[in-house]
Amino acid sequence: MKRFLFVQCLLAVWSLILFQGRVTAEEVTDLTQIPTSKIYSAWQDSLEKWADLSTSDQDAQTRAFFDAFKTADVMDRCTRESEGKQDDADLGGFINGKMQYSPLTARELAAILADLQVRMTCHKAITQYLAEHKEAYTPEERDILATALLELSDTCEYPISIRNQIEGGAASMAPQDEILERMKSYAEGPTDEIRFQGLMMISLSCDPRAADLLRSVMEGYRVRKEVPPARFLNIAGATLGPGGYDILLHFLEQTINTPQFMDALLGLVLTRDFRAVDQVIQAYFDGTTGIRDQTSRIEDQALRSYYFKLWHMGRTLEPVLIPALAGEDPERRVEALELLDRSSRYGVAANAAEVFQALQQLIERPDASSSQVLQCQQIIERLQAWEAEKALRNK
């Protein structure tokens, strides 16, 4: 995988190197000359020469190549007029390669973000890189970058979706009062789209105050006796975690026997609070009929969709089901088995190896009852059958 990424970075750079006469690889022995000479043939010859090098040597050669591109070189390429989609893709690949192997400093990046002559492709690539590598920067550097991203979102003329991403990047970089106020303003905005942007920023935020803001937003819906849109419930569940269970439970109770019930249940599941396990079990509505062995062959489209959602929720809860199987709480163990017993009838597990291991270990426990052992064996058989079917489809 790493070798593939290495080659992809090099391929992205090729189209940025222009023909200016032909020079052989032997004539260009110093990699730092390649960006200056801009000779495709020399670079291609070099790539072929590196094919048998170790991964570490390839990395060293690639790093030397990108080291030769200084801030001015990056700025030059980022301010050139686009020649089309392929040119944009190549430029994005170049920025990714530069940032991976020879990253610019926080202040250098801030300067590029502040320049409105820079192409959107560069700003997008830098924003994405920062979102994935923010831990590499000091608090002071992250503050500088957050300010630069926020200012860019305010001054650029990019599509709203791109500006939203840039604002989200700012929220993820540093806790700033200005960013917190913006999140609050959006979250209390006049339309769902504006409120959604506020919640997205909150979900990405590194500000410890953001969780309280999100709880306040959810509390506002509760007081107004309104049910938040499904995507708001999902963000709240995933962001607040177990701390958001109680307020989201209110929306579940409010939506019983309504089309919004499953949306509220998913929000509750995304908290990964173990109490959500019983809520999903209850949603199967089989307490008096016994577990129904439903499959994807259900003819009723609405019913099939309903069970598919429950199966997805069971997969989402696996991170709490697996520890419960190995834990010492007998009630939790029973509930974990009950949910796995149901979800195993509809498809593969999300973490199959871990689920198999936990079930096998439970079978071997001296305190496991015979009914639990049988239940574990049946769950394993079903999941193995699903895995076999999946393997056949993927051939």
Summarize the structure.
With 395 residues, the chain is mainly alpha-helical. It is 69% helix and 0% strand.
Backbone CA Rg: 27 Å
Number of strands: 0
- Unreliably modeled segments: 2-8, 10-44
Please estimate the helix content.
55-70%
Structural classification: mainly alpha
Please tally the helical runs, counting DSSP H or I stretches of 4 or more residues: 22
> What coarse outline follows from CA principal-axis ratios?
globular
**Average pLDDT level:** 86
Distance between the termini: 21 Å
Order of helices and strands: HHHHHHHHHHHHHHHHHHHHHH
Strand content: under 5%
Q: What does the main sheet amount to?
A: none
Describe the overall structure.
With 395 residues, the chain is mostly helical. 69% of the residues lie in helices and 0% in strands. It contains 22 helices and no strands. Helix 10 (160-173) runs parallel beside helix 12, helix 14 packs parallel to helix 16 (261-269) and helix 18 runs antiparallel to helix 20. The longest helix is centred in the last third of the chain and has 24 residues, at 370-393. The protein is globular and about 70 Å long. The two termini are 21 Å apart. 34% of the residues are buried. The model is unreliable at 2-8 and 10-44 (pLDDT under 50). This is HEAT repeat domain-containing protein. Residues 1-25 form the signal peptide. Keywords: Signal.
